[in-house]
C-alpha cells in the first residue's frame, strides 16, 4: 500500500507541475513517514541523512566543473573557430553546414559533456549561418539539438558520472571509454539523414555562394579549441589527473583561452558565467540529492525485489525484457530529462540487469543512448528547447525533421544492443 502511494504521490506532484527533484523528495519523505507511523519522527531522520549522503560523493564534484566548462567555452568563441575550420575542410555545398554542425557538436562533447551547453554554443553560431544559406529554421534547430545529444556519449559525460555514482561497479574511466565508439557512430548516424533531408528538399541553395574560410588561417585560430579534448582525455588516460581533476583543469584551460588567447572573456564576464554555471549545477545537484531520498524509500519498502522478480519471471525472456525496458524508457524520455531518468530508474533496473548478467558498463551505455534520444524527443527535450529558443521557432515545427534524426540514432542503439562489443571493446583494450 505504501509502495503504491510512493509512486502515486510522485506522479500526482509531477502532474500538477511540481519540479521533478521536489516531487522525488516529497514522495520519498511521505513514504518514509508512513512506514514508521509509531516512531515517525525517528524514521524521518533518514531524510536529512540520505539528502547529505546523496550529495557527499566525490565523483559529483566533476559536474559543476564540467557545467562551468560549457559556459566558458560557450562565451570564448571556440565554437565559431571550430566551425570555420570544419568549413575550410569540407567546403561549401548542399548539406555541408548540417554536417559541420554535428561534427562540431561531437567535438565539443570532448570538452563540456553537457548537451544543453553544446546546443547553446553550436546553435548560437550555426543556426544563423544555416539561415543565411537557405535552410529552414526548424530544420536547423533539429539538427543542432540532435548533434548536441552526442555530447553525453562522447567523454567527458555528466550522465556517465551520475551513472557511476549510482552503479559503483562501473568506473568513470571505463564508462568514458565505452561511450566513445557509440558516440562517434551516433554522430555519423545523424549526419546521414541530415544531409539526405537537405538535398532531398533542396535546402541550402545559397550555401555554395558563401565564402570558404582559408584552411591555414582557420586551423591556426582553432588550434586552442582542438587541443582541449586532447588535454582533458589524454591527461586522464596518462594518469595525470582523475575525471574530477580533469574538470578543474578544463575550467582553467578554458579561462586561459578565453581571457588570454582569444580575449573574448573579460573580468566583467566572469560573474555572469559563474552565476549561470552555479544555477544549473544547483538544479542538477538538488535533483540528485532529493532522488537519494526516493531511492532509499524504494529500498526500505522492498519495492525493487518484487518488481525484479515479476519482470524476470514474466516469460518474456532476456531480449523481450530488454525490449520492454527500451520502450519504457523511450516513453518516459518524452517527459523527463536524462538525469531524472537515471536517478529514478537505475535503482529499479540494475537488479534486473544483474539477474540477466548484463555488463554494467554496457548497460550504462544503453541507458545513456536512450537519454541522448530523449534530449531531442518532443515534448520535453532539453536540447531542442535550447535550439528552438535560439532559432525562435516552436518545438512542434521541428517534428518532421526530428523523426528522421531519431531513426538514425535509434539504429545505433539497436546496433549496440545486438553487438555489445561496440561499447565494450575500447574499455577492455585500455584495461578498464
Describe the structure.
- α8 (about 115-130) packs parallel to α19 and α17 (about 340-355) runs antiparallel to α18 (about 360-375).
- This protein has 2 domains: about 1-55; about 60-285 and about 305-430, no CATH class.
- The protein is mostly helical.
- The chain has helices at about 1-15, 20-35, 40-45, 45-55, 60-75, 80-90, 95-110, 115-130, 135-150, 160-165, 170-200, 215-240, 245-260, 265-300, 305-310, 315-335, 340-355, 360-375, 380-390, 400-420, 420-430.
- Mean pLDDT is about 80; it is low at about 35-40.
Number of helices: 21
Please tell me what the overall shape is: globular
User: Describe the biggest sheet?
Assistant: none
Structural class: mainly alpha
Instruction: Give the H and E element order.
Output: HHHHHHHHHHHHHHHHHHHHH
Radius of gyration: 22 Å
Total strands: the figure is 0
The residue fraction in helices comes out at: over 70%
User: How much of the sequence is in beta strands?
Assistant: under 5%
Whole-Å distance between the termini? 43 Å
Family: Belongs to the TRAP transporter large permease family.
Subcellular location: Cell inner membrane
Main location: membrane
Subunit structure: The complex comprises the extracytoplasmic solute receptor protein and the two transmembrane proteins.
Amino acid at each position: 500500500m505504501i509502495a503504491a502511494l510512493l509512486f502515486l504521490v510522485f506522479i500526482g506532484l509531477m502532474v500538477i507541475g511540481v519540479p521533478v527533484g521536489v516531487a522525488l523528495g516529497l514522495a520519498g519523505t511521505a513514504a518514509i513517514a508512513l512506514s514508521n507511523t509509531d516512531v515517525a519522527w525517528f524514521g524521518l531522520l533518514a531524510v536529512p541523512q540520505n539528502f547529505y549522503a546523496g550529495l557527499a560523493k566525490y565523483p559529483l564534484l566533476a559536474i559543476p566543473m564540467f557545467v562551468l566548462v560549457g559556459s566558458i567555452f560557450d562565451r570564448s568563441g571556440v565554437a565559431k573557430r571550430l566551425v570555420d575550420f570544419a568549413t575550410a575542410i569540407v567546403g561549401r555545398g548542399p548539406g555541408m553546414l548540417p554536417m559541420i554542425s554535428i561534427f562540431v557538436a561531437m567535438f565539443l562533447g570532448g570538452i563540456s559533456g553537457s548537451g544543453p551547453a553544446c546546443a547553446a554554443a553550436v546553435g548560437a553560431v550555426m543556426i544563423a549561418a544555416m539561415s543565411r544559406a537557405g535552410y529552414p529554421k526548424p530544420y536547423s534547430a533539429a539538427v543542432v539539438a540532435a548533434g548536441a545529444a552526442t555530447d553525453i556519449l562522447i567523454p567527458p559525460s555528466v550522465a556517465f558520472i551520475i551513472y557511476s555514482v549510482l552503479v559503483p561497479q562501473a568506473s568513470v574511466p571505463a564508462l568514458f571509454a565505452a561511450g566513445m565508439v557509440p558516440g562517434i557512430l551516433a554522430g555519423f548516424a545523424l549526419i546521414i539523414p541530415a544531409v539526405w533531408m537537405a538535398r532531398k528538399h533542396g535546402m541550402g541553395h545559397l550555401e555554395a555562394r558563401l565564402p570558404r574560410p582559408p584552411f591555414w588561417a582557420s586551423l591556426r585560430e582553432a588550434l586552442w579549441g582542438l587541443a582541449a579534448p586532447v588535454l582533458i582525455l589524454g591527461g586522464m588516460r596518462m594518469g595525470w589527473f582523475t575525471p574530477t581533476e580533469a574538470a578543474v583543469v578544463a575550467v582553467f584551460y578554458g579561462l586561459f583561452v578565453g581571457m588570454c588567447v582569444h580575449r573574448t572573456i573579460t573580468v566583467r564576464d566572469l560573474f555572469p558565467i559563474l552565476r549561470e554555471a552555479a544555477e544549473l549545477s544547483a538544479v542538477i545537484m538538488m535533483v540528485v540529492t532529493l532522488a537519494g531520498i526516493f531511492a532509499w524509500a524504494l529500498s526500505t519498502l522492498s519495492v525493487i525485489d518484487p518488481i525484479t522478480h515479476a519482470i524476470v519471471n514474466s516469460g518474456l525472456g532476456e531480449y523481450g525484457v530488454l525490449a520492454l525496458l527500451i520502450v519504457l524508457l523511450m516513453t518516459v524520455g518524452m517527459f523527463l530529462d536524462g538525469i531524472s531518468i537515471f536517478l529514478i530508474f537505475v535503482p529499479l533496473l540494475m537488479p534486473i540487469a544483474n539477474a540477466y548478467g548484463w555488463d554494467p558498463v554496457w548497460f550504462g551505455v544503453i541507458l545513456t543512448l536512450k537519454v541522448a534520444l530523449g534530449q531531442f524527443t518532443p515534448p520535453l527535450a532539453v536540447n531542442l528547447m535550447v535550439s528552438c529558443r535560439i532559432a525562435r521557432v516552436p518545438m512542434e515545427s521541428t517534428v518532421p525533421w526530428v523523426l528522421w534524426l531519431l531513426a538514425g540514432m535509434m539504429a545505433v542503439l539497436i546496433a549496440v544492443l545486438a553487438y555489445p562489443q561496440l561499447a565494450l571493446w575500447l574499455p577492455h583494450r585500455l584495461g578498464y
